[in-house]
Amino acid sequence: MMSDVVKTDPTGITIEIVYRGIFQKTLAQRICRSIVLAARKRGYTGTAFGRYGDSPERNGVPAKYFAVVAINDLELESSMAKYEPKVVDIAVAVDDTLVKGVESWAWYGRQPIWKPVHAGGAVLVTSDKTPEAILAQTDTAERPYLMGIVPGLASFAGLWVFKDDHTDYRVLGALAKIAPDWVRIEDVKTLIQEQTKDGSAVASAQDGYDRTRLRAVKVGEGTSGHEVLQFEKPGWTTMRPGVIVDARKPGERNPYYKKYGARTLRPVVNFDTCIKCTMCWLDCPDECFEVTPEGHYEVVYEACIGCGICAQVCPVKDCIVMVDELKFEDNDDKWQLWKTDHDAYNRWFEQKSGVSADPKSTAGAGVMTAEREEND
Amino acid sequence: MADTTFSNATQVLEPFRGIKKVTIEEYFTSGHRTCQGCESALIMKLMVKAAGPRTIVLGSTGCMYVANTTYYTTPWVVPWMHTQLGSSGSAALGTAAGLKALMTKGKIKSEPINVIAFCGDGGGADMGIGAISATLTHKEYNSLILLYDNESYANTDIQISGMSPYGANTTFSPPGSVKRLIHTRWKKNMAGMMAVGHTECRYVATVCGSYAVEMMNKVRRALTIGGPTFIHSLDPCPKGWDYDPMLSHEMGELAIETGIFPLYEIEDGVVKYYGKTKAIVGGRKRKPVREYLLKQGRFAHFLEEDLAYFQAKVDEMWDKWEIPAIVPFRKLEATKAALEAR
Amino acid sequence: MAIEVKEREHKDVETEQLATGCEAIAEAIRLADVDVMAAYPIRPYDGVMQAAAKLIANGKMDVEYIVADGEHSQFEIVKHASTVGARVFCASSGVGWAYAMECLVVTPPLRIPMVCLVGNRALDDPGAFGVEHNDALFVRDLGWMLCWIDTSQEALDTTLIAYRVAEDRRVFLPLAISADGAFLTHSQAITMVPPKSKVDQFLPRYNRGDLLLHPDNPITVAPQANEDWVIEIRRQNDEAMKRASTVIEEAYADFRKVFGRGPENPWFEEYMTEDADIILVGMGTISLPMKVGIRNMRAQGKKVGLLRLRWFRPFPTEKIVAVLSKAKAIGIVDRDYSFGSPFNSGVVATEIRAALYNSDKRPPLLSFIGGLGGREVTLEDVYKVAELCYAAANAGKSDAKTHWLGVRE
Q1: How is chain C split into domains, by residue range?
Q2: Cα gap C39→B106, rounded to integer Å
Q3: Of C210, C227, C239, the CB nearest to A53
Q4: Contact pairs from chain B to chain C, CB under 8 Å
Q5: What distance in Å separates the CA atoms of residue B259 and residue B329, rounded to the nearest whole number?
Q6: What are the structural domain ranges in chain A?
Q7: What distance in Å separates the CA atoms of residue B102 and residue B108, rounded to the nearest whole number?
Q8: C-alpha torsion sign, points B104, B106, B112, B114
Q9: Cα distance from B339 to chain A (closest Cα, Å)?
Q10: A219 three-class SS
């Protein structure tokens, strides 16, 4: 019978925030700093740092920020001068699509969200979905852990303008619920009051505390449907001299850095309404489209990072629709299905996108004017 | 002993006659660590798509080096080599000279190989401007220097460069309670500067990924015409500019429709405007700059006076410059009148 | 438009020339059929570029000769030419070499066999165009091979050897040949210039193999690495430098076979060291006043000898220790400085001290600094060094203080 509280070392706690690079950089930083500053109120010490190798961060590419609280400076030392903690007590995913795995750079592979979490630790996820729905997309557990769903949608912003929707306060409240020895709700609320003088912010922390839903996860629970992406790094005797790597062969895609883990949405295509204007393929910065024999453009889901440009440049209403990544279990390309079982494909399109695949349903809406290339 | 006399010829790359004629093959493939919506990555893909497989690319330090190539792997199909931040001019020159020397002496087969040096606005317009200038005087070496401009030192997490727009928020120019605008310099006019200052350089152009076929055709022209050439691309950057990545294509269009960024080429001294820029030169009203600036978080601190200043500077480019948006000398009639008045 | 490919002249006889160190090196790169070189003016090295320009103008050398806009560009140009398979030459002095540093630091990991001349010159400010060794020494930790020469003949011969060693696939490291400013760069001496046919026997073509940047060998060179990879890359450089020692010995042995001259010991020149009580150590043209002084002292019965260090990187630790450990005292004169180093000595003294540390026999070692900024090292200086060494030998120890030679108080 697992407790509702994370078991930690008596000397301190290590928490990581797993987040979407740039979009949630400020959010992750704020949460980690607040963890340490709140713990100061009880006389503890701590450190907060981003994982240096993640920088420079890229929009959407998963990154990590850490907060360590320790009872004194001596205990804190073992967490300092570290690239990243190998073991954490709590991992917080501030975007629920991150539970499908973390691929941060080349040769890193796709890591389960719970990878550094020890047995008896916790994974918190900000989401509007149920724990069962989240668990269905999380890699099969190798150790028991406590899953907590912090209510709310993913909070995305940019580098300069922060979206103050109280996600950080709710997360702090949730942390206080499962790690009360280190993140005390009273300290959190005091800190927030000092910093913001905003009662609603304080209330949000309490809200996170009250409404976070906990679910004990046993070994074996989760999905084994995600791709295994792991690499053994070569040593100096076999590495090519001169800092050189072989180029990619024509037609080959980079197998050591796939990057699909950077998306929160994926495009689904209505091949019936597609007018083969070529714009999606042309304007995709990530080479994510393949040309089909009939001149359609299909999405290579292994490469797509969900930027949404294709949906924006497509001149036909609802021909490309961006859909929540958690609605999909695999990265299989779909045009073959459209060719072999047209109706099944269209049902899939409608079920995922919530939009009718019937061209007549967009009649009257018409084809929007495409920005044709002007060639003098 | 290799065959054929060396002729210093370039590849003959015909312009794509329409979107359907664009090469399908990718010479820069997926799996690079760029941001969602990165227009500079798009420019790289288009650049080598236009150039084809007999190409060597030199990439200066910057986003398009660090983001794209993470050791021990690569997304490049064509040969690519890193070069130093301010070295794009030297890298192009050295690579072209090396190939030429070996071909002239018959040590390797003579064939036209594209040499493209790809540098950012930091490396190209600031640190490396001297080296680029030198290379553009060497008419005996064929190369293209493509300066991709995301208007900051982006790879170091966004700092001011000589191409950053007036008042932009960056980590070196954050708006504070006492100083709202730290960066009050106006953007360098790189393409115009290169064209005016280097009369041996036969081709200078500006491009934007939002007009992809035009961009690729300009790359092809630069590689075909011979000698050193220069292209400046404006690349909307969702990370540095702070907007939803899906709007990158529109952002490029707005930069042009507001007249902030002009699309043109100069071939052997003849100026030709393109697309919406051509329409503006022909009299079409420019969209107000606020429509572009206020869509980006890096200008969220702008007040009316900042927008007005920005608008006035852009108006000047079109109303007062002798060659609109390219050469800032005042119109000849105005100059004559001013001299007579003295 | 076709370009005429010139018939290269083959001088199949050896000629004697009165040449400066710079001019001798220009002859060497002509003989080596260098493909690309870049020039930028700074004294005192640029005599080599001026000599090369004359050779080109008179049709004696076929090379892409590029006048750069600064030393950073100068070195970057030849670095990139080398990656596409061109044999390259570059050179600089003093602060010019410093300006190129961003390029110099990456040529070892990129395995670019760039052969360079450094016309050793004091860093300015405070100016002076005369010799100091600190410029070349900047790169001593980075994976560059470094050697010091003291005659025009040695300049020519060492340049040919440099291409042979640097471009060996087991090595592929950049190499800087240091020539003292003015005393070697600008002083003319009788130099035998070998025929091209001999050079072709000794020097194979530069073949970059699968490290070549060319569409027929698609590679990506130097993608950004991170902490998962860098130490392995450095270890590769470590191994290459270790292999260089073997390659250097092979090259010198072959040189003697082909050209009928050249030292048996590549690493250093020994002058009257066999029975010496006191051995002086120096690099470059300091050897000349030292040799004169040694002959004079020998005439007085003083058994003094000279070890003129030729190769500084890779450092010939065992061989140096074998010679120096037999002396009763060692006097090292650095034509460079290393402020704040363990005994406030110059660089060479620090390294030799380190080399001797594990030896059973560690004679008293005295460190001197002299001849900076082009100041002549005089016979008086040489005698002073020997005198202090004798005192230490008799006492059986030295005071480990660094002595500055010929400094006005």
Answers
A1: 15-259, 268-404
A2: 24
A3: C227
A4: 168
A5: 18
A6: 12-217, 263-362
A7: 6
A8: negative
A9: 39
A10: coil
Predicted local distance difference test score (pLDDT) of residue A360: 76
User: Please, what CATH class does the domain formed by C268-404 belong to?
Assistant: alpha beta
Residue closest to C49 by CA, chosen among C73, C67, C70: C67
Question: Are A59 and B245 within 8 A, CB to CB?
Answer: yes
**Crossing angle of helices B212-225 and B39-51, rounded to 10°:** 50
Q: What is the pLDDT of residues A216-228, one digit of tens each?
A: 999 999 999 999 9
* Reported pTM: 0.95
A12-217: CATH, from 3.50.50.60, 3.40.50.300, 3.40.920.10, 3.10.20.30: 3.40.920.10
Q: Is the pLDDT of residue C123 over 70?
A: yes
- CB contact under 8 Å between A242 and C229, yes or no, is no
Largest Cα–Cα distance of chain A, in whole Å?
73
Average pLDDT over residues B244-271: 98
pLDDT value at residue A131 = 96
Q: What pLDDT was estimated at residue A364? A: 39
Q: For residue B283, what is the domain's CATH number?
A: 3.40.50.970
Query: How many domains does chain B contain in total?
Result: 1
User: What average pLDDT does the segment A283-297 reach?
Assistant: 95
Interface of A with C (CB under 8 A): 53, 83, 105, 107, 233, 235-236, 239-247
Chains in touch with A (3+ beta-carbon pairs under 8 Å) read: B, C
Q: Specify the range with the lowest mean pLDDT, choosing from A163-172, C8-17, C29-38, C155-164.
A: C8-17
Q: What angle do CA B254, B249, B225 make, to 5 degrees?
A: 90
Closest to B71 (Cβ–Cβ): which among C2, C88, C229? C229
**A40 membership: H or E segment, kind and range:** helix A25-40
Structural domain for B50, as ranges = 19-341
Q: What is the pLDDT of residue C1?
A: 41
Q: What would the CATH number be for the domain defined by A263-362?
A: 3.30.70.20
Q: Tell me whether the CATH fold assigned to C15-259 matches the one assigned to C268-404.
A: yes
The chain A residue lying nearest C232, using CA atoms, is: A236
Q: Is the pLDDT of residue B1 over 60?
A: no
- Does the residue B221 lie in any domain? yes
Interaxial angle between packed helices C230-259 and C152-166, expressed in degrees from 0 to 180 and rounded to the nearest 10: 130
B59 located within any domain: yes
What pLDDT was estimated at residue C11? 56
Amino acid at A140: T
CATH class, domain C15-259, is: alpha beta
